[in-house]
């Protein structure tokens, strides 16, 4: 089962629809209506953390879920979900100098894990004005994708199957979004089986 932790984002069900092509067993729960105990009982094989408005909140279950399930369950964060991953492991957020909400931009990547067999660069869309700061990025996180302005567009944990995307793979303007989500499921299949 894929657990999608929703942050009241209007695009969450676009992600759910895309993931549904790969796995029909999906449950969507709001971040402030879910507990760690419930997640334990659900026994998800994957956790996807949606985007949403603002900054990762200290209320709700998101950051605690990242702490508790990293290394046990593959986790993918999108937008705000990516920010929550960064902050959970000690990263910092800042406002972007290149605010382009809803605009496509070129994304470059390392070709690893979810970026396997993804063209270089590819076009993707982001909707968030916050980005992960390049300064003081914790050693446990690597930059796996970046913009032409060298802004962090994706992160990966060095030891755990935890990835974050600054851009929105579910956007119609993200050329390879469905393949990225498929790669997340396929690459981590050996972890969950």
From TrEMBL:
Range of residues in the leader sequence: none
Top-level taxon: Bacteria
Cellular component annotations (GO), alphabetically ordered: cytosol
CDD domains assigned: GATase1_Anthranilate_Synthase (cd01743)
Biological process per Gene Ontology, one example term: L-tryptophan biosynthetic process
Keyword terms: Glutamine amidotransferase
Protein name: Aminodeoxychorismate/anthranilate synthase component II
Residue ranges of every copy of the Glutamine amidotransferase domain listed in the record: 3-185
Pfam families: GATase (PF00117)
GO MF assignments: anthranilate synthase activity
InterPro entries the UniProt entry points to: Anth_synth/Amidotransfase, Class_I_gatase-like, GATASE, TrpG/PapA_dom
Organism taxonomic ancestry: Bacteria, Bacillati, Bacillota, Bacilli, Bacillales
Source species of the chain: Siminovitchia terrae
């Amino acid at each position: 089962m894929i657990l999608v932790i929703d942050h009241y984002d209007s695009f969450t069900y676009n992600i759910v629809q895309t993931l549904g092509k790969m796995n029909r067993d999906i449950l969507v729960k709001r971040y402030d209506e879910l507990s760690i105990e419930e997640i334990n009982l659900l026994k998800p094989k994957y956790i996807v953390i949606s985007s949403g408005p603002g900054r990762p909140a200290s209320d709700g279950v998101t950051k605690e879920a990242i702490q508790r399930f990293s290394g046990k369950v593959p986790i993918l964060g999108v937008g705000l979900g990516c920010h929550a991953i960064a902050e959970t492991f000690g990263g910092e957020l800042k406002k972007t100098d290149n605010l382009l909400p809803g605009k496509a931009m070129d994304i470059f990547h390392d070709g690893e894990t979810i970026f396997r067999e993804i063209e270089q660069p590819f076009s993707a869309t982001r909707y968030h004005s916050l980005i992960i700061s390049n300064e003081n990025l914790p050693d446990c996180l690597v930059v796996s994708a970046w913009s032409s302005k060298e802004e962090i567009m994706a992160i990966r944990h060095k030891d755990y199957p935890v990835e974050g995307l600054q851009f929105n793979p579910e956007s119609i303007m993200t050329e390879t979004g469905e393949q990225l989500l498929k790669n997340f499921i396929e690459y981590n299949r050996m972890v969950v089986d």
